[in-house]
Amino acid sequence: MEHNWFFPPHDGVRLEDLAMRLGAELSDQGAAAKVVRNVSPVYRAKDGDLCYLLSRKGKAELETCQATAILCDAALASLVPAHITVLLTPRAHMAFALAGEILQPAAMRPAFVTSEASGVSPMAYVDPTARLEPDVVVEPMAVIGANVEIGEGTRIGPGVVIGAGVRIGRDCTISAGARIQCALIGNRVILHPGACIGQDGFGYGPSPKGGMIKIVQVGRVIIQDDVEIGANTTIDRGTMDDTVIGEGTKIDNQVQIGHNVRVGRHCGIVSKVGIAGSTTVGDGVMIGGAAGLNGHIKIGDGVQIAAMSGVVADIPAGERYGGIPARPMRDFLRDVAEMTARTNNRKKTGDKE
């Protein structure tokens, strides 16, 4: 890949210092003064790069690897060529994520779009009743409504619209084109471009004349600390209760979360997931891409839901589910194996006939 001017290399971190910060063990103390400046995949890593190895499946990629250092478990260290220094750690994936934060801090949250890196742009509109703590940045064309409160160190990108009465905590990043209303947002929250928070939930009652009558949505959205919400994701406000996204949860792009949904702490929700209204999702739940969850159900703590699953009923804590309708993973895989076998048998029978 050609030089990336969007994310230039770090000035350099010594391997000895990096190992200490990551809690890793430097395999060769003679390499302590070597410097890494960037992260890279194994197959195209060059001098100055750091990469990581998770399994023996990556052995072939090491043939073209010229990295300065590689993070891996001690069981994989023998696979690494002699010219590459090994940083030993049983949690290489986590250590690589932490190293990325050290070497590419600017990539940890969306950057400023304009060159204005302080204060309120004269091309933004801030209602006179809004209260902004020191060191809040508001870029051009943003609109901040009446009685909004925004905490110190928060960045408001261009074209953002923040509705009346919204509260946003400290050190948040609200990216270009995001829309927020009827919401209370904690500290260190990241909203990526186009995220929409606090709009009407989908609620209608039958009309005696046919058609549907709108049910008012008068709840809020509460987003706790350290949540990250992807581009073009939508989170509806509650009907009368609140929609809640728990601390540390990470939500991908193009996710839809309905009214009154409660998502627990430290969940991972991948792109295209849809969660219907009044569903409760426990702590530490992982939901694969394009899965759909029915309304008014409960997903227990630590549940894992496979991509493209259709969840129609409660799932007990700690279970792994997949398929349509979603069922325990062992049952889903058995059903897939049986269907595959029947299909193959039909093909064989057809060939003979």
Q: How would you describe this structure to a colleague?
A:
The chain is an alpha/beta fold. It contains three helices and 39 strands. The protein starts with 12 loop residues before the first strand and ends with a helix.
Short structural description:
The chain is of the alpha/beta class and 353 residues long.
Name a few traits of the molecule.
353 residues, alpha/beta, Udp-n-acetylmuramoylalanyl-d-glutamate--2,6- Diaminopimelate Ligase, Chain: A, domain 1, 10-stranded parallel sheet, 3 helices, 12% helix, flat, UDP_GlcNAc_AcTrfase_non-rep, EC 2.3.1.191, lipid biosynthesis, LpxD
CATH topology of the domain at 13-108: Udp-n-acetylmuramoylalanyl-d-glutamate--2,6- Diaminopimelate Ligase, Chain: A, domain 1
* Sequence stretches where pLDDT stays below 50 over 5 or more residues: none
Instruction: Return the CATH architecture of the domain at 13-108.
Output: 3-Layer(aba) Sandwich
Note the total helix count.
3
The radius of gyration computed from the alpha-carbon positions, rounded to a whole number of angstroms, is: 25 Å
Q: What composes the largest sheet?
A: 11 strands, mixed
E-strand count: 39
Q: How widely separated are the two ends?
A: 54 Å
Helix/strand-derived class?
alpha/beta
In round numbers, the mean pLDDT is 95
CATH class call of the domain at 13-108: Alpha Beta
Globally, the shape reads flat
CATH homologous superfamily designation of the domain at 13-108: MurE/MurF, N-terminal domain
Percent strand equals 25-35%
Spatially, the strands of the biggest sheet line up as: 10-13-16-19-24-27-30-33-36-38-39
Family: Belongs to the transferase hexapeptide repeat family. LpxD subfamily.
InterPro entries: Hexapep (IPR001451), Hexapep_transf_CS (IPR018357), LpxD (IPR007691), Trimer_LpxA-like_sf (IPR011004), UDP_GlcNAc_AcTrfase_non-rep (IPR020573)
Organism: Rhizobium subbaraonis
Keywords: Acyltransferase, Lipid A biosynthesis, Lipid biosynthesis, Lipid metabolism, Repeat, Transferase
